[in-house]
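Appendix B, example 12.
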Amino acid sequence: MSAAPAEAIGTVVRAIEDEFAKSPPTLAVIGLSGVGKSSVINAMFGTRKKVSATTRGTIKFRSDTFRIVSDRVDGAPVTCALRVVDAPGLGEDVARDAGYLQSYIEQLPRVDIALWVVAARNRALALDQRYLETLSDVLPSLVLGVGQIDLVEPLDWSEAINMPSAAQEAHIAEILADRRERLGRIVGAELPAVAFSARRYYNLQALFNACLKCAPPRRRWMFEILKSFSTTDWLDRAKGLSAAQRQKLAERYITSDARIRLDDLDR
C-alpha cells in the first residue's frame, strides 16, 4: 500500500469507527459455570473481563459493549466496539436458569456469533444438551470451544514448547470428537469445534478462525480488526524452543498476524 495522505487515512478511520459505533460486532459466549467463558473473551479480544477461579465472575445476565483501541490496521489506531452477551454460568443456580435462558432467547437473534464453551475434563454434558436444545431455534452460527485442554490427563503439558504431550494430544482428540458428536446431535448438524487453552494462548488462532467463518460475511472484517492476540502470546511461553523451532511452529499453527491494510478491508 502506498503512503496515503494523513487526511485521507483519517477519513477512512472515522468511517470505520462510525460503523463500529453504529452496529458493534456481537458475540454471545455460553456455557456452564467455571468453563472459562470470560478467559477466552479476554484472550481473543483484550476485554479484561473479571475472571474468578473460586466464585462467580459474571453475576447477572448482561450485554456489555467494550471500547477497544485496535492497532491491527496499518496507518492509524482505530477505536472499535465489541458487544458481548454473557451470563453467569448456566447450571449454577436452578432458580435463575429459566431467567437466563429467556434472556438468551431474547438476545441471540441479534448476535453475529455464538461460542458455546465446555471444559475438556467435564464428561457430563446433559445440562449442555438440555440448554442447547432450548436455545437451538434462536442460535446464530454456532462454534463449539473445548477449553482448558492443558488440564487433560495425564497432566504432562510440555512447558518447554507450550504444547500438549503426545499422550495429552491423543486424549484431547478423543474428547473433541466426543463433544462434537454429542452436542452436534442436539442441533442436527456437525458443529465446528476447536480444542484450546485460553490461559496458554494455545490454538486460539484456530478458534478465532472458526468464529470468523461463522460470522456474517459482511461483518468478518470487524472481528479481524478486534483480534488482540498474536503468535508471540503463545510462543513466548515456550521457553525451550530454538529460533528454527519457533519459526516452524508459527508457520504451522498461526496463520494471520499481519496488519490489515485500509484498502484491503471488505466493508
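Residues 50-59 have pLDDT under 50 and may be disordered. The beta strands are 26-31, 62-70, 73-74, 78-86, 113-119, 142-147, 193-195, 260-261.
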